[in-house]
Amino acid sequence: MLKIYNIKDKKEFLKEICILTQNEWGSKCNSEEEFNKKIAKKMNKILNSLDNPYYCKLILVNENESDKNSMLIGFISIFPNDCEERKELTPWYATMFVKKEFRGNGYSKILNNAILKEAKKRGFRKIYLKTDLDGYYEKFGAKFIEKLENGEKLYYFDLV
Q: Has residue 78 got a pLDDT over 70?
């Protein structure tokens, strides 16, 4: 059974999320020690952000009722800041990630809907997104604002 959780309630997935995040978006590490330090730093940053109303990490988990094993499918976040070029904008839709073995099954739509619902529940009227993907987030309702200097595109979701 698929369920959405706030990472606050499922911290057992925190290290796995940080490893996936580092592998997907982090800078290359020259040693296992450096990699482990980055993971520890990411874990601490998330734990220290959990009470920030402009921060949230939701996870999609497949729970197998028969054997009580849960498997992480993916995650998505709200960040207070995520764009050097547009620091005045907040909050940000960030880190949409579905594990490779689960892609193509509509899980990104589940994560997208969950984070937009959470952002609206927190009283946000808009949430911003930057991406280098073409035509991906529009299918979820993202509206284009502008192309950034680094080549990424800036979008927003209207939550009103």
A: yes
How many Å apart are CA 1 and CA 15, to the nearest integer? Answer: 22
Residues 29, 103: Cα–Cα separation, whole Å: 26
pTM above 0.85, yes or no: yes
């729970």: which residue's tokens? Answer: 63
Q: Tell me how far CA of residue 95 lies from CA of 31, 33, 67, in angstroms.
A: 24, 24, 30
Question: How far apart are the C-alpha atoms of 154 and 105, rounded to whole Å?
Answer: 26
Number of domains, the chain = 1
* CATH number (domain holding residue 154): 3.40.630.30
Strand partners, 158: 126
Please, what is the angle between helix 14-25 and helix 32-49, to 10°? 120
Given phi > 0 = left and psi -120 to 50 = alpha, else beta, which region is 98?
A: beta
| Percent of the residues in the chain that have a pLDDT greater than 70, as a whole number | 98
Structural domain of 82: 2-158
What is the CB neighbour count within 10 angstroms for residue 143? 13
- The string of pLDDT tens digits covering residues 18-54 is 999 999 999 999 999 999 999 999 999 999 999 999 9
CA Rg, the chain, in Å? 16
